Amino acid sequence: MKKILFALIVGILALSHAPSFAQQKSSLHAHVHGQAQLQLAIDESQAVLSFSSPLDNFLGFERAPKDEAEQEKVKQLLLQLQNPLLWIELSPAAQCQAGQIKLDSPVITGKQKTNDEKKHGDLRFDLELQCKNPQHLRSLKAKLLQQYKGIHRLKVEVVHAGGQHAKTLQADEINMTW
What residue stretch is flagged as signal peptide (predicted)? Predict the structure, then answer.
């Protein structure tokens, strides 16, 4: 029963966050500079974190890098993405570890297909988490709001067996509890 609930939660997030799951444009999450979205679905032992943001918030541009300096910025961002839990700190008592990350960013990967992708580059990823004590997963700290000055607001949605919660975080308020 709980696995079915988790599948439903992930399904709901997939429908509301189409870009990272189906690599399609979603009218629910418009490309707005200075804003990013984070969605977290929690089950008995695992969680899925989905993140979306214009690349400009991280790099200062959202097209393919043009020179060595821009290529270095992309390289540094990719290195930082190897551990996104340094950006989003979860309740320590939950003991969550990062699992597989699925990155979808045509500008970074060099696989742009449409003119729209060339105009509006996004960073999107889904991260599987394995948590020893998911019942203690009750908060997050959005450190990326202080690490990346290009992000002014982070819209957070959390879905778990006990309900769903939403909050918009800013650099002066990076914590969310549920």
Answer: 1-22
CA distance 178 to 173: 15
Which residue, chain included where needed, has tokens 């799951």?
A: 21
Count of C-beta atoms within a 10 Å radius of residue 27: 6
**Residue 93 DSSP class:** G
Q: What predicted TM-score, i.e. pTM, was given to this entire model?
A: 0.79
Q: List pLDDT tens digits, range 100-151.
A: 999 988 877 766 555 554 566 899 999 999 999 999 999 999 999 999 999 9
Structure tokens at 65: 């890098």
CA distance 157 to 168: 9
pLDDT in the model for residue 64: 84
pLDDT tens per residue across span 138-161: 999 999 999 999 999 999 999 999
Amino acid at 143: K
**Contact assessment for residue 106 and residue 25, using Cβ atoms and an 8 Å cutoff:** no
Range 113-126 burial, b when 16+ CB lie within 10 A, else e: eeeebeebbbbbbb
**C-alpha distances in Å from residue 79, one per residue of 73, 86, 119, 167, 170:** 10, 12, 24, 28, 24
Residues 125 and 116: their CA atoms lie apart, in Å, by: 19
Q: Which helix (DSSP H) or strand (DSSP E) does residue 98 occupy?
A: strand 96-104
